[in-house]
Write a structure and sequence with these properties.
A: Alpha-Beta Plaits; seven-stranded antiparallel sheet; 5 helices; B: Rossmann fold
Chain lengths: ~140, ~450
């Protein structure tokens, strides 16, 4: 129901983003979802990979500051209003969304969105009750490989 | 390029300056008499001094000659910190009429005290400072040293008044107002930190004001190290003579030493402050002309007599006599210090203070580096802190909060604005053993 996301601290310098991504590429780790939050001085690279445990230790050993966070993948209909319905429901339940981004899932007519909720467990329970499909991590990761 | 300037009949000499021109034998007599008295006073009234002298098995009677000063114990900044706030006072509070404070190493300031007599001496040495910089009655002095706990503002203020000049107590900051005052009040002399004056110069250029068109002819600069290149730039762009003055709160504040018309070394007002230069490692006195650490003894202080204060400033006594006619010894302008302290915008900063702040926020000490730069003439301090897994978050806001908390903790301890940048781990250089904590890019 929940997915482990890897966050990496980056200084905001040109060409800098490539370094951790190169490292993962050399080790054959495919990036399934990615978002980058940045300020004038630093950025936070957030990654979804299948073998997150290995990716995390590789990055850590290479000297990066890494953190694992639970995020919630939600299945939405790939048409106008699909995302809005999820946001409305989350708002009604007073679920705080720290950030969200799209996941590269290739099912026709469906899209997966990654949500970072302040309270992931309550979010999963609420969204499930409200009729949304919170995706299972394993089949989801398998689907994109 | 320098402006023609008005001189009165006295030719820059002020009666208060007489001790600067004493015959040497006479000066040494005065010094010895005062040294014996101040040692006796400290021995009688300051526990720490008596204890240390007893440990070395010496009494005030053992001071028979000026060279006997080398037998006395040193006083360090740590001693002032350890006896915070009033532990080194030699006068009862009923006789103390003023307290000042300067930044210390642990967040607690160092407190200094003055009797009425001390304030008179302070005004006298500052009068001699201004006279030495060529100022006199009739000059209009804009005092941009900060007024308050810092000794710079009030020290310069009373000295300029005693000189007979007209003082404008504008204090630091508000650069546009500084320029308005400078123009509208026909200011002839300016007191400021050199970096702040450069900032004023840059602001003036932005506003289309050319200081060379104004009556301003003299700048009295101190409270931080500055280079000869910086002096040349100030003199060229402002059309003034720029003088270096020296002082420290522990001794009296500004007014310990000043340049003269020769602008070659700073004359020490040594009838009040006895100078020695020592080997900073062994503590042994060095002969005049040899570079070492400047050590000062207050010869006339009542409220807080300080014996052999380790200034940490590296300099040498210039042995040759000065063309200005003063007989007091000169030391070379101070460019560096024997510890890792640095001075920014007139504030003494020790890396240990920054460490204390980082520790307070993070719990453990992260790797950090202090970068000093000079932007538009104003000194800037930026602390780069390596992000640790403990404080790292996937959320921007949480990291911004960490950044702000670190900056606030440092600003709280130092009392000045600092920049704070979070950097990747291992991005700061580590040298063998000791990390290079301070990178000074101020080009001084």
């Amino acid at each position: 129901m929940k997915l482990q996301q890897i966050s990496v601290f980056l200084e905001n310098r040109s060409g800098h983003l490539a370094e951790p991504l190169d490292l993962l590429a050399r080790e054959g780790i495919n990036i399934l979802g990615l978002s980058l939050a940045d300020t004038a001085e630093f950025g936070i690279l957030r990654l979804i990979v299948r073998d997150w445990g290995r990716a995390e230790s590789l990055l850590r050993e290479a000297g990066w500051v890494v953190k694992l966070t639970e995020v919630v993948p939600v299945d939405v209909e790939d048409h106008p209003g699909g995302l809005a319905a999820v946001l409305r429901s989350a708002g009604e339940a007073d679920l705080k969304i720290e950030y969200m981004y799209a996941f590269s899932l290739r099912h026709p007519g469906r899209a997966a969105l990654i949500f970072r909720f302040a309270e992931p467990d309550r979010a999963v329970a609420h969204l499930t009750r409200a009729g949304f499909r919170v995706l299972e991590a394993e089949p989801l990761l398998a689907a994109v490989e | 390029m320098l402006k023609e300037r008005w001189n009165d009949a006295a030719g820059g000499f002020h009666p208060a300056s007489a001790p600067d021109f004493l015959p040497l034998e006479r000066l040494r007599e005065v010094q010895l008499r005062r040294l014996r008295a101040v040692v006796q006073r400290a021995y009688d009234h300051v526990d720490l001094v008596r204890q240390r002298m007893q440990e070395k098995d010496i009494t005030p009677q053992d001071i028979r000659d000026l060279s006997d000063i080398a037998h006395l114990p040193f006083t360090t900044k740590a001693d002032l910190r350890d006896t915070y706030p009033f532990g080194l006072f030699a006068s009862p509070m009923g006789e103390i009429v003023r307290l000042h404070a300067s930044s210390g190493t642990t967040g607690k300031p160092i407190v200094v005290a003055y009797t009425r007599e001390d304030l008179e001496v302070w005004a006298e040495v500052m009068t001699r400072t201004f006279a030495s910089c060529g100022l006199h009655r009739g000059d209009i002095v804009q005092n941009a040293f900060g007024y308050g706990l810092f000794t710079g503002g009030l020290g310069a203020h009373y000295g300029a008044e005693a000189l007979g000049a007209t003082v404008i107590p504008v204090s630091g900051g508000n650069t546009e107002r500084q320029l308005m005052v400078m123009q509208d009040f026909n200011v002839t002399a300016m007191c400021a930190t050199p970096s702040y004056f450069l900032h004023i110069l840059d602001r003036a250029a932005d506003m289309g004001i050319d200081l060379r068109d104004l009556p301003l002819h003299t700048g009295v600069f101190g409270a931080e190290p500055w280079s000869d290149a910086m002096r040349r730039r100030i003199e060229m762009e402002a059309g003034i003579r720029a003088y270096d003055i020296y002082g420290l709160s522990e001794i009296i504040g500004p007014g310990v030493a000043s340049e003269c018309s020769e602008q070659h070394g700073l004359h020490i007002f040594e009838d009040h402050f006895y100078p020695e230069v020592i080997d900073p490692d062994t503590g042994e006195p060095l002969p005049d002309g040899v570079e070492g650490e400047l050590v000062l003894t207050t010869l006339s202080k009542q409220a807080m007599p300080i014996l052999r204060y380790r200034t940490r400033d590296i300099t040498r006594i210039i042995p040759e006599t000065c063309a200005c006619g003063r007989t007091t010894r000169r030391f070379q302008r101070v460019g560096r210090r024997s510890d890792d302290m640095f001075i920014i915008r007139g504030v003494n900063v020790f890396p240990s203070q920054v460490e204390a702040a980082l520790l307070q926020v993070e719990g453990t000490l992260p790797h950090y580096q202090i970068i000093l730069t000079r932007d538009n003439g104003l000194d800037q301090m930026t602390v780069e802190v390596e992000v640790t897994p403990e404080v790292f978050s996937d959320q921007v806001r949480a990291l911004e909060d960490v950044r702000a908390a670190l900056a606030k903790a440092i600003e709280h301890i130092l009392g000045i604005r600092v920049g704070l940048r979070l950097v990747e781990p291992r991005s700061l250089a580590r040298s063998e053993g000791k990390a290079r904590r301070v990178i000074d890019r101020r080009d001084i």
